Amino acid sequence: MSKYVPGLAVNLLKVTLLTLASLAILTIAVPRGECFQNTGAQITDQSDSILSCIVRKGDTLYDIAGYHQVSVRELMKVNNLSDSLIIPGQVLIIPEKPQGEGSLSRGDISREDLMLLARLIHAEARGESFEGQVAVGAVILNRLASPYFPKTIREVIYQKSSRVYQFSPVGDGSINLEPNEKAVLAAKQALQGADPTGGALFFYNPDISRDQWIRTLPVMTRIGNHVFASVTT
């Protein structure tokens, strides 16, 4: 029979609660996309250390690329990935960021256009994942390359059809909200060529949209609350 020691149970309870609290803090403190850092990995046949990370549950390639401010394309290239599928426990090498601003594969984009794109992303998808926000930005840029739409970011975003704006935030004024850092990073990723939609020209929330025509378009993918579609070829 065990012997009762006064105060022992209380002390053990305190230690347990402190341990659980510490674990909870650690869990909350690591934002999505940051993953667990591993700076001790070595490049084969070289002595220079490189930055790598271990994928956590819930991470996406777009989250990780956005957090480290590198392009998804470059992240896939250095890790020899043929698609964006990653799994928990996987170790990813983080490519070095180029000096200064990252190059934009969509051409020379002004700071004004970058922030306009970020404002639209923030207004349309601020409740979505980072990948979902990149996808919204990609739709705008896909329209630039399409013969059916205008040829500048501003013209695409402010385009009207039968006196109705193509994007509701322009009509209701929410496009004027200040974008957060996540939306700006998503805009940069889209401008660097990231496109998780696979070339979509439209997106909509099927739970909210009353447009019956857009529902007839071929669906490319669904990310979060948005369905991404294109025109019939």
Automatic annotation (TrEMBL):
The keyword Nucleotide-binding does not apply. Gene3D superfamilies: 6.20.240.60, Cell wall hydrolase SleB, domain 1, LysM domain. CDD domains: LysM. Residues 51-94 form the LysM domain. Transmembrane segments: none annotated. Pfam families: Hydrolase_2, LysM. It comes from the Bacteria. GO terms for molecular function: hydrolase activity. InterPro entries: Cell_wall_hydrolase_SleB (IPR011105), LysM (IPR018392), LysM_dom_sf (IPR036779), SleB_dom1 (IPR042047). Keywords: Hydrolase. SMART domains: LysM. SUPFAM superfamilies: LysM domain. This is Cell wall hydrolase. It comes from Pelotomaculum isophthalicicum JI. The lineage of its organism: Bacteria, Bacillati, Bacillota, Clostridia, Eubacteriales.
